[in-house]
Write a structure and sequence with these properties.
alpha/beta, Rossmann fold, eight-stranded mixed sheet, 19% strand
């Protein structure tokens, strides 16, 4: 893939840009980099799409601003629009996984003119107003740990990243995650996504605030039965947040759908985005 550094929203982003035709921007979450999408890019390019794959702020070799507040999702939405602007793309399909599914939801709600179709993997729409279920709270235990600056970093790395490896439960790219997060100054920016967006009030569903505009884009939601961190209910209730057409697909396997079931995901993306 053609690799370049793109300036957007005051930062530099490492972006993989390949193919021509209808643009699709693929956004990764924690603890990934753009490499998450390595099995999707060839299939999309072969079928006439231009794929835009950034390392999100704080990850890979993209800029890593120092402050927790620098990682608010509202700011990261401007990263995405800035990358599209820099590449002279007015409108794109948007595919997001994990944290960047949250970014994708906000992008589609707040800047609808930039989003053609939306694909959200693992994370459902924010702002549906539902209180977290016991299952959601149990699955989200790690979010509380990540809020403790310094302590979380020390515990995660202790004993050859034992707790982190346990948390990932055999994810295929575990060694790659440990390698990239072990680089100087890499771990804290990755955890700052949680600190900026999931204070205790948010984890308990008590943030309040204005309701987001409805998503007008046709939307595909994907959740996997082996997801240890997120619930199916959080994804399926996303239908409440959508004015466009809503489609839901359940996968078997772990949280990392793009890596676990690339063939099925590729077929689904090509069908939905076409």
């Amino acid at each position: 893939m053609e690799l370049e550094l793109v300036e957007a929203n005051g930062l530099q982003f490492h972006v993989r840009d390949e193919g021509s035709g209808t643009p699709v921007i693929l956004l990764h979450g924690f603890p990934d980099t753009g490499d998450l999408w390595r099995n999707q890019v060839p299939a999309l390019v072969k079928n006439g799409f231009r794929t835009i794959v950034p390392d999100m702020r704080g990850r890979g070799i993209s800029s890593k601003p120092p402050n927790v507040a620098d990682y608010r999702l509202s700011t990261i939405v401007r990263d995405v629009t800035g990358i599209l602007d820099a590449l002279r793309i007015e409108r794109a399909h948007v595919v997001g996984h994990d944290w960047s599914a949250g970014v994708a939801w906000l992008l589609a709600a707040l800047v609808p003119e930039r989003v053609d179709r939306l694909v959200a993997i693992s994370v459902g729409a924010p702002g549906t107003g539902a209180k977290p279920s016991l299952e959601e709270l149990q699955k989200g235990w790690y979010r509380l740990l990540f809020l403790f600056e310094g302590t979380a970093e020390e515990l995660i790395q202790r004993d050859d990243w034992y707790l982190f490896r346990l948390f990932l439960a055999g994810a295929k790219d575990t060694d790659a995650y440990v390698k990239t997060l072990s680089e100087p100054g890499a771990l804290t920016p990755a955890l700052n996504w949680y600190r900026a967006n999931l204070p205790v009030q948010a984890i308990l569903g008590r943030t309040g605030g204005p309701r987001l505009p409805a998503v007008k884009a046709n939307t595909l939601g994907i959740w996997s039965t082996g997801d240890l961190y997120l619930t199916e209910e959080a994804m399926t209730r996303s239908a409440q947040a959508i004015e466009g057409q809503w489609r839901y697909e359940r996968f078997e396997g772990s949280h990392w759908v793009p890596l676990d079931q690339p063939d099925r995901l590729n077929r689904l993306l090509l069908e939905f985005l076409s």
